[in-house]
């Protein structure tokens, strides 16, 4: 992670500062990276931002092909240059909106802190679309804000308000047109039920640690379709 941050600062100082803040705010992000990097085949990092997860996952598992997708071209270009400076050739970045773009088939999808910025109906459509592009036993790994205690949710909204200002000041994104200046949150139970309804087996991984923000990690695995003989039994 230190090497990654040094390359960020050298190439894009604003991105380096932003990613350093990200590390400090989310001390358990290493859990997400280790979990995602343990898989094989293709991993799609949907809404990859500056590539912080894509790059570190690709670095941890050279046999895994990582595809980062983000709606902002400047972020993808920044992430690609950092990956090249680290001599990582198993990670690539695509500028596209994951809510409208034709999604690729992959063994794993990673969604870190993107669902809560979009209306609940759009979240459900995206999750169903991703599930359709997974093989049996394929996974969706989700790190997202959950509707939590009042003070924790209120702190999240304050952090997000200031975070948008900081990102624009550091020039890590242009006008965030995909934000609606609010967050669309589900409780842990609601998110688990939503994922189970589209045929996924869900487990919730403890993630909060020392973080004050209401982050939750979900690992949702696509079930193997039952055969006719199994159904008959």
Question: What would your notes on this structure say?
Answer:
The chain is built from nine helices and seven strands. A seven-stranded mixed sheet has the order 3-2-1-4-5-7-6, sandwiched between helices. The termini are far apart. Helix 6 links the parallel strand 4 and strand 5 (139-145). It is globular, with a radius of gyration of 17 Å. Helix 1 (2-11) packs antiparallel against helix 2 (13-25), helix 1 (2-11) packs across helix 5 (73-85) and helix 3 (29-37) packs across helix 4. The protein has 233 residues and is of the alpha/beta class. 38% of the residues are buried. The chain is 44% helix and 18% strand.
Number of strands: 7
- Determine the structural class based on helices, strands and strand pairing: alpha/beta
Note the overall shape.
Answer: globular
Compute the CA-based radius of gyration.
17 Å
Strands in their spatial order, largest beta sheet? 3-2-1-4-5-7-6
Largest sheet: 7 strands, mixed
List keywords for this structure.
233 residues; alpha/beta; globular; 9 helices
């Amino acid at each position: 992670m230190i090497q990654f941050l040094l390359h960020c600062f050298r190439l894009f100082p604003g991105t380096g500062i932003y990613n350093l803040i990200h590390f400090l705010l989310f001390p358990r992000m290493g859990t997400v990276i280790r979990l995602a990097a343990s898989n094989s085949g293709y991993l799609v990092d949907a809404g990859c931002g500056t590539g912080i997860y894509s790059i570190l996952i690709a670095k941890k598992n050279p046999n895994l092909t990582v595809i980062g997708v983000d709606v902002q071209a400047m972020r993808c270009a920044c992430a690609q240059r950092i990956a090249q400076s680290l001599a990582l050739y198993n990670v690539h970045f695509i500028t596209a909106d994951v809510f409208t773009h034709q999604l690729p088939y992959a063994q794993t999808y990673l969604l870190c802190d993107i669902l809560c910025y979009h209306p609940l109906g759009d979240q459900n459509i995206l999750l169903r679309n991703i599930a359709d592009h997974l093989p049996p036993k394929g996974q969706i790994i989700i790190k997202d804000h959950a509707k939590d205690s009042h003070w924790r949710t209120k702190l999240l909204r304050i952090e997000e308000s200031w975070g948008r200002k900081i990102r624009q000041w550091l020039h890590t994104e242009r006008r965030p047109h995909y934000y609606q200046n609010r967050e669309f949150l589900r409780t842990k139970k609601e998110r688990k039920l939503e994922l189970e309804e589209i045929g996924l087996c869900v487990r919730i991984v403890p993630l909060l640690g020392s973080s004050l923000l209401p982050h939750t990690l979900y690992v949702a695995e696509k079930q193997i379709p039952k055969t006719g003989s199994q159904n008959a039994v």
